[in-house]
Amino acid sequence: MLAAIPAFADYSTHEDAPAFIERMTQHGFEPEQTRAALVRARSNADVLRLIARPAERTLSWDEYRGIFLTDETIRRGGEFARKHRKALKRAEERYGVPRLVILGILGVETRYGKILGRYPVLDALATLGFDYPRRAKFFRGELEAFLIMAREENIDVRSLKGSYAGAFGLGQFIPSSFRSYAVDFDGDGDRDLVRSPTDAIGSIANYLSENGWKRGGVIVVRAEPERPGEVIEILEGRGLGRQGLKPVEALEDEQGARALSLNEAPPGEYWIGLHNFWVITRYNRSQMYALAVYQLGRAVMER
Description:
There is one protein chain. The radius of gyration is 21 Å and the shape is globular. Strands 4-3-6-5 form a 4-stranded antiparallel β-sheet. A two-stranded antiparallel sheet has the order 1-2. 48% of the residues lie in helices and 6% in strands. It is of the alpha+beta class and 303 residues long.
């Protein structure tokens, strides 16, 4: 795949650039404005290599969980929680999202700001939008949102760095999510998810709230086979129900109850996700991601 990438001087000369430039005129961009941004974008083979092998596909559940639930990350999370307890409390009260979940997302995404990403967002989105056919439409849409966002927020298009997939800030928002869900939670007039932990906290809570979070709802519970001693093979997919499992604790509201499919989970480790668990997967579609968020958040709160 990498060998097939044409050697463009810059993305303004890509064969699909004219259509993208025309598309941006619908948002009030002069053709030369968009062309100037594409001139500054650089192809990055590392971005293509990384997106082809996401960790959720290659790691077992134990390996994946072990990346995030470390003593160092839990310690950093505890310090972050103490330092920003007022913002976490305010977000919990306003949006109904427990600080446990907000802390879990911040820890899994960036280790509480330690790892914000090293790829220019412009380069990542242009590379994926023009040279990754499998998801080109999605990433070209994010490039479109990024250029609009940069204009709205007065950001130089080459100044922002993030992940290989074009997500940025403490909560790793993609541009379209920033435009839809980011909030100025510290009241300084800017939505700054890179330098303002308070804005990041409020924005994560707002994202989950807008995507259906139920205040006070259960997230996930441990489960066991309905027939003691039986080994259950959990099949991945939606609408599969509990697949022969029962929760270890009584549930008042079982909306969305569904068994989790975890890569090579240890024998006997079963979980049932409820409605709010599946809301977390709106942030990242991986079930392992959502469960790691929950477990890390719990560990930080216990710390």
